[in-house]
Amino acid sequence: MNITGIITEYNPLHKGHIYHINKSKTLTKCDGIVCIMSGNFVQRGIPAIIDKWSRTNLALHSGVDLVIELPTIYSLSSAEFFAFGSVSLLNSLGVINNLCFGSESGNIATLKEIAKVLYKEPIIFKNYLKTYLDSGLSYPLARSNALIKYFNNNYKIKDILHNSNNILGIEYCKSILKCNSDIVPYTIQRQGSAYNDCDLENTFSSATSIRNHLKESQNINILKNILPSETFNMIFEKFSNDNLVFEDLIFPFIKYKSFTNNNELENLPDVSEGLHNKIYKTLKESSCYTDLISNIKSKRYTYTRISRILCQYFIGLESYDSHTLRSSPAPYARILGFNNKGREILKEMKKSSSIPIYIKLPKHLNETLKLDIQGTRAYSILNKNITPESDFTTSPIYFR
To answer: Where in this chain does the entry annotate a coiled-coil region (predicted)?
Structure first.
């Protein structure tokens, strides 16, 4: 079989995602789609608006054949580790031929060229990077500036590096090199709203704009023509029962946690240079989540990085050796759901995979899996439909 992998979050699943699924099938001429999906916490550093099993159901309704959970250690990390965890997982399955992702550029050759520089890190590039970091820039901005200078201020490179999905696509291509994988990357040019756009559009509204509308407006019916019907129906039901999850909900828990123990933050993987002290101080002074992040972020520490740190703190990543865990390839494949074609793919995976495949959780849990379970327990505080033991009591979804 010719199998294509896609890497997603579906927070929530919208028409642009369905476009991506269908175009991936056409472009790669594949026999099936395997989806790596973030669990209950996503890469922006926020809890998912809908739980991972509900989002799996939407994915299977939309043409995905098999859904595998991306472990929390990767889903709550920077683009580099998010991509590495996802690609290493796809590569270990032994059945994935292609990876197809969306990008603003749509030019796979250029994305691969940039990825090669980041993977090989020629000395000239490393010197540029050091100079920009020493000037006080955040790592993402310093790296972007170093790449632009390395490519002699090429305006096309500059445009590419200003868009978040291009950056993630570059990281996917870099991770393929890092894993020495035979997976062939493809990219589809994004349509409609940009990833961070806050305004709703009838054709392809961004997940950000949809979440913002749900958070700020009681008029949910405006989304009826914007969302796929399955997504709208699910969101309408959860909205009506006050069961959508927003990041603000974690604020009182992390504030209280900071009062009980003030030496844990520094053990988180993305905290450095005394940032934990600023977070503790600002937590005491802030009255809401948005103000908290806005008062911490700086030229060096982006809004998203601070969001991830706070989510990591909420879950309890400080108790784990996160640096080692996220730098290592994904150690297992946890199945969230499948259809009939997915069952066929799963049979092939069991023959060829170099890592364990979990339909049910094993008795002996490794550290990465323990962290996933801890993530679900933390999420259960925010979502009344999820229990602390949901990882043990919820079976994979079989979509007939």
So the answer is: none
What is the per-residue pLDDT for 25?
Answer: 99
Segment 221-233, tens digit of pLDDT: 999 999 999 999 9
Neighbour-count burial of 273, counting CB atoms closer than 10 A to its CB (0-12 exposed, 13-18 middle, 19+ buried):
exposed
Q: What pLDDT, on the 0 to 100 scale, is given for residue 198?
A: 53
CB atoms inside a 10 Å sphere around CB 153: 9
- Is 19 annotated as belonging to a binding site? yes
Alpha helices in the chain (DSSP H): 15-28, 52-61, 72-75, 79-93, 108-120, 123-134, 139-150, 155-160, 164-178, 207-216, 229-240, 251-260, 275-285, 289-296, 303-315, 322-327, 340-352, 367-380, 390-393
Q: Is 201 annotated as a binding residue?
A: no
pLDDT tens column, 83-108: 999 999 999 999 999 999 999 999 99
Cis peptide before 356 (omega within 30 of 0): no
**Given this model, what pLDDT does residue 140 score?**
87
Residue 348 assigned to a binding site: no
Residues of the chain with pLDDT under 50: none
Is the overall model pTM greater than 0.85, yes or no? Answer: yes
Is 318 annotated as ligand-binding?
no
Query: What SS3 state is found at 52?
Result: helix
398 in a known ligand binding site: no
Q: Cα separation of 208 and 200, whole Å?
A: 9
Rounded Cα–Cα distance for residues 234 and 35 (Å): 20
Q: Which strand (E) or helix (H) includes residue 37?
A: strand 32-38
